[in-house]
Amino acid sequence: MDLRSFDLHEADLTEANLQGTDLRGADLRGADLRGANLSGANMSGVNLSGAHLRWADLRNARLCYADLTRADLSHADLRGAFLEGMHLLNGHFDGANFSGADLSNVDLSKTNLHTAKLAGAIFGTEHLPDEPRPPAKERKSERDATLVYPAA
Length: 152
Description:
Blueprint: E1 102-103, E2 122-124, E3 137-140, E4 145-148
Parallel strand pairs: 1-2
Antiparallel strand pairs: 2-4, 3-4
Protein name: Pentapeptide repeat-containing protein
Region (Disordered): 125-152
């Protein structure tokens, strides 16, 4: 489905099946996506500020440079998602699963990830959160050094 650049702000998309949907550039500010299936969706550049994504399935989704300021992703499944450059300021991520997700160039300094699952997540070195993390292995990429957290 192609929903590129659609205005869906404050839309009720609770438990919607949007698997593989192209949402690039869409406006989903304040949208209700609780329990929605967004696996494999392309959401690059999407505005999701203040959106509700509790329990959403975002496995292997592309959210590069998306704005998730004040969004609620509690218990969301983000395994294997591409999240490079996302804006996560003041977001809620209690119980979210970031296993294997690419969080390169994501500023996590004002984000609470205490109960989030981060095993195998990839972080760029320039914006790591201040909380202590398990030892990471450094892996060189073409762009910069990357930290890979071991699987639990």
